[in-house]
Amino acid sequence: MKSIPILNIQQFEQDVPMSDFYSNDLKSHLERNKGFFNKPHRHDFFLCVLFSKGSGIHEIDFNTYTVKPGSVYFLRPGQTHYWKFDTNPEGYIFFHTQNFYELHFSKSKLEQFPYYYSYKNIPTLHLNSNEIVYLESTFKNINNEYYKSLTYKKQKIASLINTVYIDLARLYNIFEPIKDITSATYIETLRHLEKIVDTYYKTEKSATFYANELNITSKHLNRIVKATLGKTTTDLITERVILESKRLIVHSKNSLSTISEILGYQDYAYFSKVFKQKTNSTPLDFKKSYQ
Predict the structure, then answer these.
(1) CA angle 263-251-256, nearest 5°?
(2) pTM of this prediction?
(3) 254 contacts: CB under 8 Å, gap ≥ 6
(4) Rounded to the nearest 10 degrees, how much is the dihedral formed by the CA atoms of 170, 175, 176, 181?
(5) Residue 288: how many other CB atoms lie within 10 Å
(6) Residue range 184-195: average pLDDT?
(7) Exposure b/e, 52-75, CB count within 10 A at least 16 = b
(8) For residue range 122-177, what is the model confidence (pLDDT) as tens digits?
(9) Distance (Å, whole) CA 285 – CA 291
(10) Does residue 155 contact residue 106 with C-beta atoms inside 8 Å?
């Protein structure tokens, strides 16, 4: 099976001895990693990138977004993505592990930020010219700190990242406001649900199973998913299956029937029916469209 590469932070920087954080200006980063960025790959870390110049596309989990000056992108571990550029981009990029952030902010979670709390939230934000100037200065400060050897280096970087995330969350909520009925408890439950779904989606398709794992009723779980995402629990489970099926169809050499079995469907015809209901395309047509 041809698998999608999963990259870790150590692969990007050998000169700075930090295994849980990486930063670079975008031009240097892309030049150094020109063999990676234009091919589908995954990361085992959180990623944030700001484009101050350039144009092109950024595909994240089979959704295509436009790259232009002011584009900011957020990726969570496990997401598949790649870039294609029409004009040379500039800006800044940083990666970090979950522990890097949460070690310094023990009472905070990355999922508190709207762009990280669910895979279903839009992973991008567009800044105006004034916002670009303001945010780029902090990204630059992060990058400068990364390449210096000063005391309290990690603490300073973590503090700057937290500032960036807060500023970006404020702007994000202007364009993608969280519903008033979305309480902190609902968000936390959704976060746990998505993690459990990631673990069991290949074998467990029942909403009841996940409700039992969370020690709540199926009805209440459905209420939470409806309030936070506007869909049912079954929709969420099925969409996770479809996302993985797309990854396998495009990036593996397995037959479609084998992919169906990997995802827990012994009957390929039924799997194909579910896939078409969600994508308006058969698995075979989807595969051909990417070839």
Answers:
(1) 45
(2) 0.75
(3) 1, 248, 262
(4) 80
(5) 10
(6) 85
(7) bebebebebbbeebebebbbbbbb
(8) 999 999 999 999 999 999 999 999 999 899 999 999 999 999 999 999 999 887 65
(9) 10
(10) no
User: Hey, what long-range contacts does 8-14 have (CB within 8 A, 24 or more apart)?
Assistant: 8/43, 8/44, 8/45, 9/45, 9/95, 9/96, 9/97, 12/95
For residue 253, the one-letter residue type is K
Read out DSSP for 61-118? TTEEEEE-TTEEEEE-TT-EEEEEEEEEEEEEEEEE-HHHHHHH-TT--GGGSTTTS-
Q: What is the pLDDT of residues 53-101, one digit of tens each?
A: 999 999 998 899 999 999 999 999 888 889 999 999 999 999 999 889 9
Q: Domains in the chain and their CATH numbers?
A: 6-175 (2.60.120.280), 184-290 (1.10.10.60)
Q: Which residues contact 149 (CB under 8 A, 6 or more apart)?
A: none
How far apart, in whole angstroms, are the C-alpha atoms of residue 191 and residue 286? 30
- Other CB atoms within 10 A of residue 212 CB: 13
107: its two tokens: 């009472």
